[in-house]
Amino acid sequence: LVLVVDYGAQYAQLIARRVREAHVYSEIVPHAMSVDEMVAKKPTAIILSGGPASVYVPDAPKVDPALFSTGIPVFGICYGFQLMAGALGGTVEHTGTSEYGRTSVAIDDTGVLLHDLDDISSVWMSHGDSVTAAPAGFASLARTAGAPIAAFEAPERKLAGVQWHPEVAHTERGQEVIEHFLFDFAGCKPTWTSSSIVDDQVSRIRAQVGDKRVLCALSGGVDSAVAAALVQRAIGDQLTCCFIDHGLLRKGEAEQVKHDFVQITGVDLVVADESERFLSALAGVSEPEAKRKIIGREFIRSFEDVARQIAGDKGIDFLVQGTLYPDVVESGGGDGAANIKSHHNVGGLPDDLQFTLIEPLRALFKDEVRAVGAELGLPDSMVWRQPFPGPGLGIRIVGEITQDRLDLLREADAIAREELTAAGLDREVWQMPVVLLADVHSVGVQGDGRTYGHPIVLRPVSSEDAMTADWSRLPYDLLEKISTRITNQCPEVNRVVLDVTSKPPATIEWE
Ligand code: XMP
């Protein structure tokens, strides 16, 4: 286990991913965690992330110097590098030369950290302060115009750091710098692979469940399918899957799940039509967090009903969910993270939950889930399905959810998806939410008359893990086709607009 200490911004996520790409398991922890708590997790190494603060600001996040005497190897990146320098007696100053973006670097001494990497010439920087004197006993390895000491190390103490960001793609040979720390400094072993994840989870699930029965909430998406397949591998027919039709599904979705999943896995499936329950609970609600909480609660109530149906008063003790690491982090569940939105299966759970949750994917990013799915033998058509959020079309109608609005959006969404597939772009585009701005009207002219309808937003994005995303540059011809078909076929829609915002600042879904 490698702990990535989060000093803010998005860097910690990226570092954690890079460590895992080196086949070493990593977890993000908040900077407020005490050294004792960190040591208790028995990490093989600790990485201090970059962050937006200046080490001089009075309430800037700090590092407890005791961390450096635990004997645990520590690597500091950017802000973490400066914290390490400051805590061990080096000098960090505001030199007046900031560096942002691509920066030339000179490697003076490769040492252990940069061995074989003396040809690194440009790195990605983002700093105002600089380390001007290394702590005693540290060798300085590199410099840039604005950073007299841009990398240092003390190999016998297993401490090292870099001012630049080795985790970003623009930094030359950044992954190798991270791997040198992991393998040459810290002695980590690259044993975190899809098959080790499967073995590990299968034995955990068996130990947790014993001979009890388990219900798995299937949504039609990749995550719950992989979670179900993993649990099925562990406990076979003690598992029953259940698909709740909450009335917020896309066109053809319920049929597709019944057909695909059951055929492929042979799993026992119960389908429950609960659309009336959800729609009446959502009536009159337009605030996104309120919608998410209601949907999360009604899902659980539906699962409880299904459990009673199939197991009577004995009920079912365990519920499997396909919760992922980003769901946990964004719902504010990653230690110390801000609550961006309550993912229905994390922040949206009711307090009086009767089930014990089994969440075998809770520590994984999406690409890791896909690799596990492939390892379990699920077909590409399932593993590469685009993400669709549990709350479904409910969080794609900006405004109140009504049956008419759902029907309208369902039609527009089906057209957009059909055209995207026909253009062969399903795999290139991470997902393309189609959003109905039900609270907005705009004027149009259709036929010979004035219309006063609603805009539909297309939100195609590319992403690696949904933590960050860029808007997809779809071909104009395709956009035109989608726009024409939607305005022709969907009454009340007289305008189709394209969302050209990355994440951050916008999230992928509108609500
Ligand atoms: P955002 O909108 O937070 O979305 O950028 C990140 C990814 O998560 C999906 N998403 C959800 N998935 N339950 C889910 O199962 C939810 O409540 C939920 N909210 C967002 C979203 O589609 C994107 O892939």
TrEMBL record:
Residues 192-385 form the GMPS ATP-PPase domain. It holds the Pfam family GATase. The active site is at C78 (nucleophile), H165, E167. GO terms for cellular component: cytosol. It catalyses: XMP + L-glutamine + ATP + H2O = GMP + L-glutamate + AMP + diphosphate + 2 H(+). The keyword ATP-binding applies. Pathway: Purine metabolism; GMP biosynthesis; GMP from XMP (L-Gln route): step 1/1. Gene3D superfamilies: 3.30.300.10, 3.40.50.880, HUPs. One of its GO terms (molecular function) is ATP binding. Keywords: ATP-binding, Glutamine amidotransferase, GMP biosynthesis, Ligase, Nucleotide-binding, Purine biosynthesis, Transferase. Its EC number is 6.3.5.2. ATP binds at S219, G220, G221, V222, D223, S224, A225. It is an enzyme of class 6 (ligase). Catalyzes the synthesis of GMP from XMP. PANTHER family: GMP SYNTHASE [GLUTAMINE-HYDROLYZING] (PTHR11922:SF2), GMP SYNTHASE-RELATED (PTHR11922). Homodimer. This is GMP synthase [glutamine-hydrolyzing]. It comes from Propionibacterium freudenreichii subsp. shermanii (strain ATCC 9614 / DSM 4902 / CIP 103027 / NCIMB 8099 / CIRM-BIA1). The lineage of its organism: Bacteria, Bacillati, Actinomycetota, Actinomycetes, Propionibacteriales.
